Amino acid sequence: MVLPADVCGIDEAGRGPLAGPVVAAAVILDPDDPIAGLDDSKKLTEKRRHLLAEAIRARALAWCVAEASPAEIDRLNILQATFLAMQRAVAGLSLRPARAVVDGNRCPRLEIPVEAVVRGDGRVAAVAAASILAKTVRDARMQELHRQYPQYGFDRHMGYPTPAHLAALQAHGPCPVHRRSFAPVAQLNLL
To answer: What pLDDT, on a 0 to 100 scale, did the predictor assign at position 189?
Structure first.
């Protein structure tokens, strides 16, 4: 994996779910203190993600996690809301990076040069670190939302459109954290 000191890795979690925020993280790793085991968060167990997230928070030169709310997603669309969360994460860094690398094939507008790398979360260490922070923070947020709205089962599906989640939507209608612009929610005609 690539580990330059001047690069900020950026990734997101939660573009596909029907509920909850989209979360983005920006991370500048310390090239003199590499963190073993960084990889795409989806390839790691939950336990491994949590251990790595602790190491990233403790050992990275700088990191920030930010989000865009369901209302912002509905107002802007999911891509633009994702970019907004990414911009917030980069703006929240305690150090200014020389450049950024984002996972995917599209870039948010930033005040620094930014490059998109497809599957960057498996190829660029700082992007992998951002992937891990974004995923662990979003999962924790969905656990909090489950405590507020237990009837939807957010603790099991994290807001993704599983059969159980779709059945809960049919039974209870959308709650305040559902993305009303997403088809399965909009089609309920309960807006």
So the answer is: 58
Indicate the CATH number for domain 7-186.
3.30.420.10
Q: What is the pLDDT of residues 54-92, one digit of tens each?
A: 999 999 999 999 999 999 999 999 999 999 999 999 999
The pair of structure tokens assigned to 110 is 């930033």
Give the residue extent of every domain in the chain. Answer: 7-186
Give the chain as a 3 state SS string.
CECCCCEEEEEEECCCCCECCEEEEEEECCCCCCCCCCCCHHHCCHHHHHHHHHHHHHHCCEEEEEEECHHHHHHHCHHHHHHHHHHHHHHCCCCCCCEEEEECCCCCCCCCCEEEECCHHHCEHHHHHHHHHHHHHHHHHHHHHHHHCHHHCHHHHCCCCCHHHHHHHHHHCCCCCECCCCHHHHCCCCC
Secondary structure (H, E, C), 104-117: CCCCCCCCCCEEEE
How many angstroms separate the Cα of 163 from the Cα of each of 20, 76, 156, 168, 191?
17, 27, 12, 9, 21
d(CA 178, CA 70) in angstroms, rounded, equals: 7
- Please give the model's pTM, rounded to 2 decimal places: 0.93
What's the chain's Rg over C-alpha atoms? 17
